[in-house]
Design a protein that fits this description.
alpha/beta; six-stranded mixed β-sheet; five-stranded parallel β-sheet; 11 helices; 22% strand
Length: 311
C-alpha cells in the first residue's frame, strides 16, 4: 500500500538527514508540497478556522490585511472550513464575507449572540443567510447603571431580528439602516447586544469602570478603541463556536482561531482547553497575546495570511 508519507519520501530526504539543493530544485519541492496540500486526492484533516474581523482581517481604515484573500482561498482548497467570528452585527459582516470570497455554512456575529446559517446562494452577496440562533437579554438594568456613571456616553442596541437602535451619532460606527430613538425605546425590548461609546474615555478607563461598578447578569468586552460591548450572560464567541463545531462535526482539537481583541479571549481559552490552536495578532494588547498559544505578525504585516499559507 502506498501512503502519503511514502509518496513524500520520494521527494524529501529521510528524517534526520540534510540535503543541500539548488534554488530552483528547492522551489520545485515547495511547489509540490503546496500542491499536495491543496490536492483533494491527498488526505487532509479538515480544520475549523474562525477569524476575527477588525484588527485581524481588516485594518483600521477598513482595507484588507495583506494577502488575506489569497490565503483564505488556499485554506479552502486545502479542505478547511474558514468562517468569521466577530463582534460586528450581520449587517456589518456580510460585506466582509463578500470581499473575502467567503460563504461558510455559519457566521458568528455580535460576539456570539447571533449565529447566521447559509441557506442558499454560492458565495458573497449572492449567498442567503438566516438568523439561525439568537441569544437575547433585558438591557434595562445594565444601561441604567452605565448611564449613572457615563452620562455623556452614546448607546446602540441590536434587536433579535437584526434591527439596530441608537441614541446619538457614534463616530467610526456604521449606522446605515439603524434608527435613532430615545432611551425608553432603546431598552423597551430584549436585545442581542449593547454597545457603549464614550468619546472622552479610553479603553483603560472602561476597564477601570467595569472593575469598579461590576456588570452582573451580562457578558462584556472592552474594545481597543474605547467602547464597551455587552452580550447576554455566559455568551461570547466561544459559546457560539462550540455550537458551530458540533453542528459541523469537527473534533475539538481541529479548531484554529485568530483574533486581536479582548472579545477574543473567550474563544482563545476555549480552543486551547480543547487541544486547538489560538493565535493572537502581533499588535494585540498584552493580555490578549498572553492568552494565546501563538502569536503571528500584525494585521498590517499580513499575520493571518502567514498562518493560513502554512496549512
Amino acid at each position: 500500500m502506498t501512503t502519503d508519507r511514502a509518496r513524500g519520501d520520494e521527494r524529501l530526504p529521510p528524517t534526520g538527514s540534510v540535503k543541500v539543493v539548488g534554488p530552483r530544485k528547492a522551489a520545485r519541492l515547495v511547489e509540490r508540497v503546496a500542491e499536495d496540500a491543496e490536492n483533494p486526492a491527498v488526505s487532509t484533516e479538515r480544520l475549523l478556522i474562525a477569524l476575527d474581523v477588525d484588527g485581524t482581517v481588516l485594518l483600521e481604515d477598513e482595507t484588507l490585511s495583506p494577502g488575506v484573500v489569497d490565503a483564505v482561498a488556499h485554506a479552502h482548497r486545502a479542505g478547511h472550513e474558514v468562517m468569521l467570528a466577530t463582534g460586528r452585527s450581520w449587517e456589518g459582516t456580510r460585506g466582509i464575507q463578500h470581499v473575502l470570497e467567503l460563504a461558510p455554512e455559519y457566521a458568528v456575529c455580535s460576539n456570539g449572540a447571533v449565529i447566521m446559517r447559509r441557506v442558499g446562494g454560492p458565495f458573497g452577496d449572492d449567498s442567503v443567510y438566516e438568523r439561525f440562533h439568537v441569544e437575547t437579554f433585558d438591557p434595562t438594568e445594565v444601561v441604567t447603571l452605565l448611564r449613572e456613571h457615563l452620562p455623556e456616553a452614546r448607546y446602540m442596541v441590536e434587536l433579535a431580528d437584526g434591527r439596530r437602535l441608537y441614541t446619538e451619532h457614534m463616530d467610526d460606527w456604521n449606522l446605515a439602516h439603524a434608527q435613532r430613538v430615545g432611551f425608553d425605546e432603546l431598552v423597551a425590548q430584549p436585545v442581542c447586544r449593547v454597545v457603549v461609546v464614550s468619546p472622552d474615555d479610553t479603553d483603560a478607563d472602561f476597564v477601570e469602570l467595569v472593575s469598579r461598578i461590576g456588570l452582573n447578569k451580562v457578558s462584556y468586552a472592552v474594545g481597543w478603541s474605547a467602547w464597551l460591548d455587552i452580550a447576554p450572560q455566559g455568551v461570547d464567541k466561544s459559546t457560539a463556536l462550540e455550537k458551530v463545531r458540533t453542528w459541523l462535526g469537527v473534533e475539538p482539537e481541529r479548531v484554529l482561531v485568530m483574533g486581536d481583541g479582548r472579545n477574543d479571549l473567550g474563544m482563545f481559552r476555549w480552543a486551547r482547553e480543547h487541544g486547538g490552536r489560538a493565535i493572537a495578532m502581533g499588535q494585540g494588547p498584552d493580555e490578549v497575546r498572553a492568552e494565546a498559544g501563538e502569536i503571528t505578525a500584525s494585521v498590517h504585516a499580513g499575520g493571518v495570511a502567514d498562518v493560513l499559507r502554512r496549512l
